[in-house]
Amino acid sequence: MGPAPSSGIPASTNRAVLIAQMTDIHIGFAPREEPEELNLTRFRATLERLIHGPNRPDMLVLSGDITDHGDADSFATTVERLRDCPFPVLPMVGNHDSREGLLGAFPQIEPADGGFLHYVVDAGLGLRIICLDTLEDGRHGGAFCEVRAEWLAARLADAPEAPTLIFMHHPPVVAGIDWMDPAPDEPWIMRLHDVLIGQSQVQAIHCGHLHRPITTQFAGIPLSVTPSVAPLVAMDLSPIDPDSPDDRELITTEPPTYALHRWDGARLVTHYERVGDWQVLARFHAGLQPMIRGMFAERD
Question: What's the pLDDT tens digit per position in 59-110?
Fold first, then answer.
């Protein structure tokens, strides 16, 4: 395993940088399940896809809710599964995690002012990654206080011309999933907006927390939510009354999903892949070679 938030990936002139993102793994949700808890099975399958699939990334961002209770045993289980990772791992804290648990599992992280666990990484090809800590203990939703605002403003000012990608656990937007959403005018959201407005070097913001694929904008910056590795939140955008149980779907067994962010030195493109036992319907064999050649010929 190579969890190394302080180290970057050497820039390559021959290919793009691939940054994988897994979020909301929730290890320890049901640790007594046999032979293995569902969330751990889903995590293992997703990790195997990254390591042994055709798109091995240069680094892996774990963007929060790595565990379900923030306990040392669940973090230890996670670290054990990551031990054979051939790429660096960038862990982040979510509302289900604890800073103490994350630091115990990933001691190479150096807390910033205020004890917040955020940091900057050189991803290669000129791209900076900023991992933000949006945890407020005892709160389901996000937080971004003055101390964090000063830290982020300073890091952006350090390299105002450098293309930058921001990862944070909590999306600072109302997505329409009523029981998961923040209020639109929460102070932390307005504070983050004030820091990011006009920061044209920020290529995108990538979040977790909502367990669904979502795209929007925030402060004029493209913002996406990566679906969870743990079971997904049901797609239901109708209002919900907390005092009136209506038997709506809340959590589903849609397949685990991860994101792959591709940076070629000039453009950021994000792909999402569900992990499952898919049937392959076509392979690149001699019979399909004319079609592939034709597609390349159209580029000329």
Answer: 999 999 999 999 999 999 999 999 989 999 999 999 999 999 999 999 999 9
Examine residue 11 and state whether it is found in any structural domain, yes or no: no
Q: Which residue has the tokens 């820039």?
A: 11
Q: Tell me, yes or no, whether 10 lies in a domain.
A: no
Between CA 132 and CA 190 the distance in angstroms is: 16
On the question of a cis peptide bond just before residue 86, with omega within 30 degrees of 0, the verdict is no
pLDDT tens for each residue of 159-187: 999 999 999 999 999 999 999 999 999 99
Secondary structure element (H or E) that encloses residue 164, with its range: strand 164-167
Count Cβ atoms within 10 A of the Cβ of residue 74 and give its class: 0-12 exposed, 13-18 middle, 19 or more buried.
buried
Phi, psi (degrees; rounded to nearest 5) at 122? -85, 115
The residue type found at 216 is T
Rounded distance between C-alpha atoms, residue 205 and residue 84, angstroms: 28
Residue ranges of E strands in 3-79 = 17-22, 59-63
Q: Quick one: the chain helix, strand, coil %, rounded to 5?
A: 25, 25, 55
The DSSP 8-state label assigned to residue 2 in this structure reads B
Residues 9 and 2: their CA atoms lie apart, in Å, by 12
- Please tell me the total count of domains within the chain: 1
Q: For position 118, which CATH number holds?
A: 3.60.21.10
The model's pLDDT over 192-233, given as tens digits with 9 standing for 90+, comes to: 999 999 999 999 999 999 999 999 999 999 999 999 999 999
**Is residue 6 included in any domain, yes or no?**
no
Domain of residue 222: give its range.
17-297
> Residue 5 domain-assigned?
no
